[in-house]
Design brief:
Blueprint (H helix, E strand, L loop, with lengths): L2 E7 L5 H9 L17 E7 L3 E7 L8 H12 L6 E7 L5 H12 L4 E6 L8 H11 L3 E3 L7 H11 L2 H4 L14 E5 L13 H12 L3 E5 L4 H7 L5 E4 L4 H7 L5 E4 H9 L2 H7 L11 E5 L11 H14 L4 E5 L13 E4 L7 H13 L4 E3 H8 L3 H9 L3
Parallel strand pairs: 1-3, 1-4, 4-5, 5-6, 7-8, 7-9, 9-10, 11-12, 11-13, 13-14
Antiparallel strand pairs: 2-3
């Protein structure tokens, strides 16, 4: 999982220069012309001590033209994606645009650094430093492209970024011990990618190996044969869509959960998913559900979020339920129109992105769930599948 760092500041403050220095490459366009950076631009790098990082170069926050307002709006939208921010100032300019942005950092609980750029031309004024340090309880770093100051910023980032953002978390942590046998049920249907497994399945296999477990990977059509011929495993993890079949085969004394529920525990707002999922039984005719997809992909007749899950919800409730879909990290509008929000597993998103996304619904008092938990609830396996992840017996 990559740590995402946003670079913010006024036009011509030198955001792109700082990115080039951090990456050691000329990957962002540097120009004296204002507004060179328009839409947010991403660059992936590796920072020793943090790991994989995505840097987001954004448009200037002081652009008041009609087009500039749209650019600033896109800049602010990136706040829902990032784990840490760098606010770049120059020429000792620190006013309303910077204060408004820091207000958003605090509202989104985003740790941040303030970097005074071009300090070789105009050193940081003591009064500006004192204002920032005292009012926002942060240190202001001085930077110059003419000096080798990149390591100063990198060291400050290591201290500012929460360890949870870049330390590897375990999908199976606390659920397994060395030498446990895990059966991973991976259906191969029209939604399975050609020649490979989906990311949550790959993550689970790797995590099981990291925990020194023994993995058995099979299709749901082979599961009964496994239980007929082999000793019982310590844990069964299934694709959520196979819950109905798998639940009937796996004996009650064997622990059972799903890839999606493990991902919800790892990255999502698990406790609010637990609280919100039973609301599926209270839906009524005309209710609207917001389906949150973290990736963009081609829609097929077997699509889980667009086809299978909506059909299952309508069948389970017996109600005329309406669905809206928001893919990728597009902004969510009019959240209060929805009776419920259901988030995908989030295999390509960070925990920060998922929490920020679903928190809009939580703050509005709207129940939330995720794909796997919703399917588990409607197939009668919710208590069993979540009990194992809660650590209950």
């Amino acid at each position: 999982m990559k740590t995402i760092i946003g670079i913010y500041g006024r036009t011509n403050s030198g955001k792109s220069t700082i990115i080039n220095k951090l990456t050691g490459q000329s990957i962002a366009i540097v120009s004296a012309q204002a507004g060179t950076t328009t839409d947010p631009v991403k660059k992936s790098i590796e920072i020793f001590g943090i790991g994989p990082v995505v840097l987001i170069d954004t448009a200037g926050i002081d652009d008041t033209s009609e087009l500039g307002k749209k650019r600033v709006e896109k800049t602010y939208q990136t706040l829902q994606q990032i784990d840490c921010a760098i606010l770049v100032i120059t020429d000792n300019q620190f006013g309303d645009p910077e204060k408004a942005l820091i207000g958003q950092f605090k509202q989104c609980a985003i740790p941040f650094l303030v970097v005074h750029n071009k300090s070789d031309e105009h050193p940081l004024d003591a009064s500006v430093r004192q204002l920032i340090d005292n009012q926002y309880i942060t240190k202001t770093l001085e930077f110059s492209a003419l000096r080798d100051d990149a390591m100063v910023i990198i060291e400050a980032l290591k201290k500012a970024i929460p360890e949870s953002a870049y330390h590897k978390a375990s999908m199976l942590g606390g659920l397994v011990k060395p030498n446990d046998v895990l059966v991973l049920v991976t259906p191969i249907d029209d939604e399975a990618p050609e020649g490979r497994l989906i990311l949550p399945q790959v993550m689970a296999i790797r995590d099981a190996l990291d925990n020194d477990c023994i993995c058995v990977v099979l299709k749901e059509t082979n599961l009964q044969q496994y239980f007929d011929t082999m000793p019982h495993p310590d844990l069964v993890v299934t694709d959520s869509q196979a819950f109905g079949i798998v639940n009937k085969i796996v004996p009650a004394e064997v622990r059972l959960t799903s890839f999606s529920i493990l991902l919800a525990r790892l990255r999502g707002d698990y406790e609010n998913y637990l609280k919100g999922t039973p609301h599926l039984a209270q839906l009524d005719d005309g209710d609207k559900i917001l389906m949150l997809e973290s990736c963009t992909h081609e829609i097929s007749c077997g699509d889980i979020g667009r086809v299978k899950l909506p059909a299952l919800i309508r069948k389970f409730t017996g109600k005329d339920i309406q669905f809206d879909y928001v893919a990728g990290l597009q902004p969510i509008e009019n959240i209060n129109q929805y009776a419920m929000a259901i988030q995908c597993g989030g295999c390509v998103a960070t925990r920060k992105q998922l929490i920020n996304r679903t928190n809009l619904a939580v703050q509005a008092g709207i129940p939330i769930s995720n794909y796997g938990m919703a399917i588990a609830f409607m197939t009668g396996t919710f208590e069993r599948a979540t009990r194992e992840v809660r650590g209950e017996k």
